[in-house]
Specification:
The protein has eight helices and no strands. It is mainly α and 213 residues long. The N and C termini lie far apart (89 Å).
Length: 213
């Protein structure tokens, strides 16, 4: 119900109905009953719907992109990444340009690769870095996508925000930051694994290396 009440088309209808009631109160519509306000609302609703789209009781698809960080980390991160992928592929209202959709999909792939690397790694991420890894997939990326999709496409691509960039450019900047963080986390794990491999190689060399008489 709140979704309908807060829709631009509904407000357009309410404004039209209010205007009709004001005219009625001023005596300019003396021959018409109060039912004309309903006609005014209907007319305003239609005009608003043609401009902004019909109100809906259904939850917007991007608003359903909400995930909880609970239970097994891989399952929680996997659910979130799957949801981001599906939403990006569906691309409601064609709000996500092709190049941007590709970057989102690639970031999901990198996060899935980080998960795989994390599971087979001999090293460990510090507690704070582990927190970042989980939340990039479960909240940071979905929340950024949700917020971006809530902005009308004409505004997102043309209007400058207080940072001097459009919403689309700002979102691209967020993706760049997340991509860099995921790469850094992967490098941290790879560095630990490389050190573990080096220690193991030195042990084997000492144990089975050529012995001098």
């Amino acid at each position: 119900m709140f979704r309908w009440l807060n829709a631009p088309a509904n407000w357009c209808g309410l404004l039209a109905a209010t205007g009709v009631l004001v005219l009625k109160a001023l005596g300019l519509l003396a021959g018409l009953g109060l039912g004309v306000a309903a006609l005014g609302y209907a007319g305003g609703l239609v005009v608003g719907a043609l401009w902004w789209g019909w109100p809906s009781f259904k939850e917007a698809e991007w608003e359903a992109l909400q995930f909880k960080d609970e239970g097994d980390a891989r399952e929680a991160m996997g659910r979130a990444l799957s949801g981001v992928r599906r939403l990006t592929e569906h691309n409601p209202g064609n709000r996500i340009p092709g190049a941007l959709a590709t970057r989102i999909q690639n970031l999901c792939g990198k996060l899935e690769g980080l998960l795989d690397q994390w599971e087979r790694s001999k090293g460990q991420l510090p507690l704070q870095e582990s927190f970042h890894a989980r939340h990039i997939a479960i909240s940071y990326l979905p929340d950024a996508l949700n917020t971006y999709l809530s902005i009308p496409p004409q505004f997102a691509t043309k209007k400058l925000l207080s940072n001097g960039m459009t919403a689309q450019a700002t979102f691209e900047g967020v993706l760049t930051e997340l991509e860099a963080k995921v790469e850094q986390l992967g490098d941290d794990l790879a560095g630990q694994d490389a050190q573990a491999f080096l220690r193991h190689s030195e042990f084997l060399k000492q144990k089975f290396g050529a012995k001098h008489p």
